[in-house]
Amino acid sequence: MAFNEKVLAYEAFLNEKLRHDLKIVMDQRDSVYEEVAEYMILKQTIEKLKRSNFQEANVGENMKTQMDIGCSFYVQAVIPDPKRICVKIGYGFFAEFTLDEALPFIDKKVEFMNQKVENLTHQVCSIKAKIKIVLENFFTCVLPHDSKFKNMAYGWRIKTPSGLEDQHVEHY
């Protein structure tokens, strides 16, 4: 394989595969973080409802509230039975719970999603390590062995001709 072909292969693998994979995994992790935040807000809302004793004080009454329908647009809503709520359990399914039943479910769901975040974080670290290896190999191919810039691939500081130190900038 010719020198230029090797450089192009490293560049294509880095840009088309690794950086693309990194973006996908980071987007997945961000969506799981958002879902965790929604469950935590739900948990806080349930706890506030329980503390306010709304259930016992207003038996048979409707509860009025505002509901976000997207992009921070709110509409008036009426909850006919505030003693029971529907909670998203996954894959587009919802289950009806009492407020007391919902709290342990939310705790287990958040714990499960935190494990998922941890796995996705390990994947992000693995992909970043692969990117670093590809960059090191790329710099090994491109720069001569006596080059003062070669150390940039390893994240070290280098001396410029003027004697000042340049700080390493992340490559990914």
From TrEMBL:
Q: Which organism is it from?
A: Romanomermis culicivorax (Nematode worm)
For this record, the Gene Ontology CC terms, alphabetical, are: mediator complex
SUPFAM superfamilies xref list: Prefoldin (SSF46579)
What are the GO MF terms of this UniProt record? transcription corepressor activity
InterPro entries this protein is in?
A: Prefoldin (IPR009053), Prefoldin_subunit_alpha (IPR004127)
Q: Which domain of life is it from?
A: Eukaryota
Tell me the subunit arrangement.
Heterohexamer of two PFD-alpha type and four PFD-beta type subunits.
Return the protein name: Protein UXT
Q: Which GO terms describe its biological process?
A: positive regulation of transcription by RNA polymerase II
